Amino acid sequence: MPNGSLDSLLFDVKAGILSWEQRFNILKGIASSLLYLHEEWEQVVVHRDVKASHVLLDGDLNGRLSDFGLAILYEHGTNPKTTHIIGSFGYMALELSHIYKSKSSDVYSYGALLLKVACGRRPFEPRKPSEEIILVELVDYLWQGGQTLDAMDKKLENCYVVEEGELVLKLGVLCSQTAPEYLMAMPRCKNI
Fold this sequence. Notes:
Blueprint: H1 6-11, H2 20-40, E1 44-46, E2 55-57, E3 63-65, E4 72-74, H3 103-119, H4 135-144, H5 162-175, H6 180-184
Antiparallel strand pairs: 1-4, 2-3
Helix pairs in contact: 2-3, 3-5, 4-5
């Protein structure tokens, strides 16, 4: 993969800035990969460590999910046989340790990835002011205040499709919730 990892391209100033079109394409590619792994392959594959450093980019900047060292496989319609909590801090909800053997764990991690790519920030930054430490909480707060797009990566200099930016940010928040069905019942989630 000649372009390395998504993580390195997002944060290496020497590498240049990924455009919104490139970022959006990468996110769609990873979503497609997860759909295939969860629903379309002969077995269910749960990656359990979806994050930007595990997204490798080919010559055309297409994202490819890599590092399946923590993945588990099981038959469709059955429950996986594992009890271990696996994953990377910031990309998993510790209070949902019971799901880290299911597709929900990849959905949660993908939500963190969506936010990281759109915001140009890591999911957890302890050196930020207290209200900005946890990225999903910051974006959720901005969404509640009607300022969702304030979370977009400033390096993009407002060069993005507004509807796509809002969609990615809102999906990132929804995927990264411990009870997404509760959020979908909220009035602000009706028109996503």
